[in-house]
UniProtKB/TrEMBL annotation:
Any GO molecular function: deaminase activity
Lineage per the UniProt record: Bacteria, Pseudomonadati, Pseudomonadota, Betaproteobacteria, Burkholderiales
Family annotation (InterPro entries): RutC-like_sf, YjgF/YER057c/UK114
Signal peptide location: none
Organism domain of life: Bacteria
Protein name (Swiss-Prot/TrEMBL): RidA family protein
Any one cellular-component term (Gene Ontology): cytosol
Amino acid sequence: MSLNTSLPFSKIRRAGGLVFLSGELPLNADGSIPEGISAQTDLTLQRIGATLADAGLTLADVVQVTVYLSHQEDFASFNEIYRRHFSAPFPTRTTVVAALVVPSARVELTVVAAEPTPS
């Protein structure tokens, strides 16, 4: 699966000191999706980290996460991997169980990050 770059949304937007990232899926460079929620969560968070790095930010700057899981039974495994990428104080978070646009994806994440205030 490749990303359709003609879709009507931005991957990233800055506004009012915040950085908003559109939904990120667990896509490898070749468009494939790894098996299992753990691998998919790890890849999705790596991709978010890379997008934030391009914007001069890190996962430590994330203040809000919205999680979309396609299978409720993945919640515990998702949290195990999530804790490897975030630490206290954790971002605020909402988790929704719903069908995803890409059927083989088990997770999609959106994040909001706060830009560091100038010293």
